[in-house]
Structure formats: C-alpha cells, structure tokens
Amino acid sequence: MKVKAAIAVATLTLAAFSPLATAQLKPGMTVEQAQNEVRAQVKRGQSLQAIAKAAVSAGVDPALLVAAMIAATGNPQAAVRAAISAGAPPAAVVSAAIDSGAPAAVVVAAAINAGAPAQTVVAAAITSGAPASDVTNGAREAGVSASVITQAINSATPPGTATTGPTTSPSSNSGAGAGGGGGSTTIVTPPPGSQS
Amino acid sequence: MLAAPRGLADLYVFSPQQRLAQLDARNETPGPAEWTRARQDLQRALELDPHNPAHFELLARWYERYTLRLAPASSLIPAYLEQAAAHLRRAAAARPASPYTWANLALVKLRLAQYDAEFQTAVANAWRLGPWEPEVQLALAQIAFRAWPQLGADAQDAARSAMRNALRRYDRELFQLARLHGALPVLCAVPRASASPLSAACP
Fold first, then answer.
1. pLDDT band at residue A183, thresholds of 50, 70 and 90?
2. Domain total for chain B?
3. Which domain holds residue B1?
4. Of A143, B27, B141, B169, which sees the most CB atoms within 10 A?
C-alpha cells in the first residue's frame, strides 16, 4: 500500500511539474518571452495549433502571438494557419504576420487556406501596406478567382492611393542630434566609445 | 574560454550595428527582411553573451526603429515597444550610469504614453548622468515638448536644465523641435532661451 501511494504521489508530482503542465503563454508577456515559450513548447513536441489554442483561450494578444510564433519557428505559413485555426481574428493575424516581416503572399495564401474569408484577408494585407501584387499572388495561390481579388483590393484601397507597399521610407526621426523630424521619436545613439 | 563566445557574439552584432547607424544617418526605417535578420543576429549574440548591456540596447533600438515603418494603427507597435523597453531595462540594470540608456527608456515610454514613476526616473537619471551630452539634452527636450504636463516636478526640472544647457550650442535645433511639436512656450520659459536670436519667435 505504501509503495502504491508513493508511486501515485510521485506520478502526480511529475505531472504537476512537467513542462507541458506548467508552460503556457500568458497575457502580459513580451514578444521575446512568448517567442522563447513557443520555441520551448515546440521542442517538447507541442503542435503550433495546440500552443495557439491555449494562448487564445488564455487571452494572449493575437498580434503578439503571431509575431512570437513566426519568430520562434521561422515558418509564417504554419503560424498563420495555427492562429486562425485557434480562433484568432483573421484580420489581426494577417496584419501582425505582415507587420512582423513575413512575406505578404505567403501570409495571404496561408490565411485563406486556413479558412479565413478572402475579402478580410486581402483587406488586412492591403491595410498593412503589402504590395497589391504580392497580395494578388498569395490569394491566387489559395485559389481565389481574379475578379474576387480585384474587387477585394479595390474595396480595401482608398481612392487615389497607390497600392504598392512601403519601401524603405524616411522615418519620422526627431531624435536628438538630428534636430528635426516628425511626430514620432526615435531613440538616441550614444557616440562611439562613450558606452564601454 | 569566455572570450570565444563573446567574440562570436561581436561578429553577430557587427552587421546590425553598422546597418542601424546607416539607417540613423539616412533617417530611414529597415525593411522586413533586414529587420528579421538583425533580430535573429542580435538574439544569437545575446545567447552567446547574455550579460552584455550593449547588445540589449542595440536590439531595443532595432525594435523601436522597426515600429516607425509600421502603420500607426498596427497592433504590433505596442508589443515591439514593450519589448524595446524590456531590453532597455536590462541594459539599465547592467549599466546604470549610462545617460543614453535612461534617455532611450524615457523615449520608448513616451511613445507608449506610459508616464509612470519609471518614466519620471528615467528622465531624471538621463539628466543627472549626462548633463552635457548633446544627444541626451535634445532627447530630454523632445520629451519636454511632447509631454510637459505629464512630467513630474523633478522630471520638469531635469528637462528644463537639459534645455538650458542645450541652448548654448543647439538653440537652432531646439527651436525647430519646439515649433514642430507646438511647444514654443515650454522652450521660451527656459531662462537662457531669451539669449537666443531665435527667441523672437517666442509668444
């Protein structure tokens, strides 16, 4: 009896302290904390879908979740698919994936293939500044007809606005030393040798 | 033995450091591919040399710089700025005497509209540790122009003192910044402002 009880206690203890039981993405984590957590869970054999589902139910910001999954895996396709399958809002997923640096065509195709509505996906991609040509390629790859794509792009693009994505645009650098710039700040650079 | 990982970390840091300096000089923002690469390189550098405040600060600056590229409504902006702030906190903890780190933390928190005790302390520390650093003076002036009512008494004193020092040599930049932010009254209230020929613009 004593042996059985000891085994039961040991089993319960192991279950309680096993990584799968304790590890979880939580609201309030930084992107890199979430990234490290995703990487660790994937290493332990968790699927991205399961990770995304747990994170969405825990109330983790979908944008942060998607950025973290992409950074952790280097696989935007899988990250977008997992987040959408987990119930994260498709527009938020698509915008976050593109904003985090993933190729727009890959993101759009993955989102539509995961079941997100094409119009929503295209609109989110265009709003994030993705080039219309990339969005078109992605949507076409997912099997969306050319007429639907054109309609979606037109309805997402303000009249008279170019549909090409941002290039390396000037930042609103009003950082110290530059002595000018726009409304945003950019942080200051220590002069060489002053920080060692 | 310890030197090898540090040396390797320096190799990973080299390219992102050079590129950021270039972006700073050209007043540009990084493209997605170079941002992804820089972040990976700097994260690798931090794995190899996890206590180096310079790596934390550089990665923070990349996060902040990349947000300038995103649409203002992007929900990743707060997430990336929070990450930048987290790295700057690590840098400040490891290198508490750097006025640049404190000024940068204050600037990131300004963008997050977090005017809490940490923000006030960062402003005060930046001034206390770098009263004659032009970059710090102008950073504090910028904070004053954008968030004067949110600054506590100590932080207002710090920003005013920084502007007073900066007025000796950088009055043109200060007046330009103040005009840009619609904050001429803040600058004109600084004692030395009236000595500048540009004070004719004061209300």
1. very low
2. 2
3. 1-95
4. B141
